[in-house]
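User: I'm writing a short report section on ligand binding and want a predicted complex to refer to. Could you take this sequence and uridine-5'-diphosphate and write out the structure as tokens? A short remark afterwards would be nice.
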Amino acid sequence: MASARTSVFRRKSSGFIVLIIFVFVTLFFFYDKEEIKHESEHPNAPNVARLELLRSKKGSRHKDDFEKEYPLLLVNEQLVICFENGTDYRKLPYITESPPTTEQDPLTTQRNIRRLLPTLHRTTTGDAAEPMIYFVTPTYPRREQIAEIIRLGQTLMHVPYLHWIVADDTDTCSQTLNHHLKKFGIPYTQLASPMPEVYRARKNAPRGVANRRAALNWIRTNGKKSGVLYFGDDDNTFELKLFSEIRYTKKVSMFPVGLIGDYAVSTPIVRNGRVEGFFDSWPAKRKWPVDMAGFAVSLEYLALSPNATMPFRAGYEEDEFLKSIGLKLQDIEPKANNCTEILVWHTQTKSSKAPTVRISMDRQKLDRLNLGTVLKQLETMGVNRISETEGTTAQAIVEGSVKPLSYWFS
Ligand code: UDP
Ligand code: MN
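Assistant: Sure. The structure tokens for the complex follow:
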């Protein structure tokens, strides 16, 4: 009897073990399929699972290590975080509630400034009183890069609760770029996100795509599911009101962008407070004929589309990105006073060749003057080139007359 019961028990338990193995095999099979599906649908989609693995190998990272510098990984589509700062260090030297009067002592004005500071001095890790704006800026090394970043950074300095993701189209972490980003005091992340060579070789290369994909990757990898995403190129012009307009985006908000194409504007067409169509001089059979700077997406809404991505397809980046998040016309909120105001401009910086400056004397001597530092700095940024044999001869002017640089050392 006892042995009969034992054998029934044995049969039952072996059946149970077989069932467990079956469940595991099934789960494993499906998990694998999901990965394959994910990769085949978007062959270049960042593989978040693989990234997670990489990160855990590097040692677990949490909010407290925010200011660490990270080692460089030179693989396309992998998340290369160069530098991060999660704390808001901004000082707003230009804010005063009212202009100081002659009776007002300077200390009172100082106190006014200090009263305003706490609204900005929050960390991105703490509970923000307002939704965070994740402002994604693709940028690339060229002689105008640092000038653009300074101009944009000084705009963003006025915007509270903003995290600036600066994704640089290069495979090295630019120290020069970081040096400038740090100075603004804005919470930021600097990524290195090179355009794959295969696209760079194209005549119509998809500019800024690898960068924006890397930023999407950072948002996902860091589990950011509240706040708002905005793509702001390094050469555009942003009016401060834009930020308060997009901050409370429910799903996707849209607004006009000035200086676009042959109509000089790209905008949704709004009737009775609803977006009913688009006004853009390059329809190109796009479902969403909008500019990259003409929309913002809430992160709650973005999180509903874990495979959302931006294709390496010049001219169709916005359209396909918005398709990939399953946007519907009725989901769009018109902003900027029912799209009657232009709060963002597609300005472009004229680029010109770096001039060569000819310095035939021993350059080290110039370090005794300010000129050594100034010229070296610009050379590092690619703003100019220095040569011993070619270019425009460097000369000095002293009391109206031109002298060779060697004049200072004779
Ligand atoms: N960009 C980039 N790599 C490039 C060219 C451009 O990352 O090789 C960035 C650039 O800094 C800008 C965005 O992509 O933020 C759009 O590029 P650009 O302003 O040249 O294009 P536009 O939209 O003005 O024609
Ligand atoms: Mn541009």
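A remark for your report: The longest strand covers residues 133-139. Residues 80-89+129-345 form a domain with the Spore Coat Polysaccharide Biosynthesis Protein SpsA; Chain A fold (CATH 3.90.550.10).
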